[in-house]
Amino acid sequence: MNFDDRVALVTGAGSGIGKAMAVAFAKAGARVVVCDIDAATAGQVAAEIGDAAVAATADIGDDSSVAALVETAVSTYGRIDVLCNNAGIMDTMALPADIPLAQWERVLRVNLTGTFLVTHAVLPHMLRQGGGAIVNTASEAGIRGAAAGAAYTASKHGVVGLTKSVAWAYAKDGIRCNAILPGPTMTNIANGATFDPTGSARLGPVLALGERLAQPEQMADAALYLASDAASFINGAIVPVDGGWSAA
Ligand SMILES: NC(=O)c1ccc[n+]([C@@H]2O[C@H](COP(=O)([O-])OP(=O)(O)OC[C@H]3O[C@@H](n4cnc5c(N)ncnc54)[C@H](O)[C@@H]3O)[C@@H](O)[C@H]2O)c1
Predict the structure, then answer these.
(1) How many domains would you assign to the chain?
(2) Any idea what the CATH number is for the domain that residue 110 is in?
(3) What are 19-50's pLDDT values in tens digits?
(4) Known catalytic residue: 170?
(5) Backbone angles phi, psi at 105, to 5 degrees
(6) Ligand 1: which of 108, 189, 191, 215 to mutate, most ligand atoms within 8 Å of CB?
(7) For 222-233, what is each residue's pLDDT tens digit?
(8) 14 within some domain
(9) Does residue 2 lie within any of the structural domains?
(10) pTM for this one?
């Protein structure tokens, strides 16, 4: 898979799956915009990649921050061929009756509205260029009710719906949009998290079934394929990358 002369914008690229995606796209020849809300990690990853990367600090849940992000990408590289909407946060596993409104709004704002805001800002550039590929990082919680708490589950189902909407709307414009559904993956997403006791007790036994952990690079490989010309007729696909967990 060759991304020479292409530009990839990856959100949440300071850590975990997004970092693996940024490194993989650069290795495949792309120039990469390494976006994260954490300026330090975005800078570290861009420095690791070297000349082919630029760091961009942005909060995907804030529209003016997203506007500045896309401006940085376009003013630096002139175009955006690949968008990986990957940044996301967990909830506390709280069940529907127990989740505080503030937590619901924060998780929806980042995971769903953030994915929308970056897509909304990048699409005009892809339309102007005559094409592009978007890969959204959803989750098993985007197709199942027992993989996370209420907010994360609703947000990732929303990402699946948005993926299909974009795929359908722009199929004739040369823009493809697909989603990966990672199973449990070795990243920093649960670092420092506190979990709701009721939700954890209910969800724990189900989540234990998916305890075979993936490496972030295995998610990046799937994203690379979906963004590549090898997947030129794959559009609107919701692809589990979970070693068979969701097949049970
Ligand atoms: N790790 C898993 O088991 C798993 C499973 C399914 C889905 N996912 C999804 O994978 C994606 C990547 O998560 P990860 O596991 O690599 O976690 P991670 O915490 O290692 O990386 C996520 C990155 O996103 C950044 N981020 C958070 N909020 C942001 C914001 N508002 N704007 C910009 N950047 C922001 C963080 O600073 C962090 O660097 C998320 O969407 C997550 O929901 C992860």
Answers:
(1) 1
(2) 3.40.50.720
(3) 999 999 999 999 999 999 999 999 999 999 99
(4) no
(5) -65, -35
(6) 189
(7) 999 999 999 999
(8) yes
(9) no
(10) 0.98
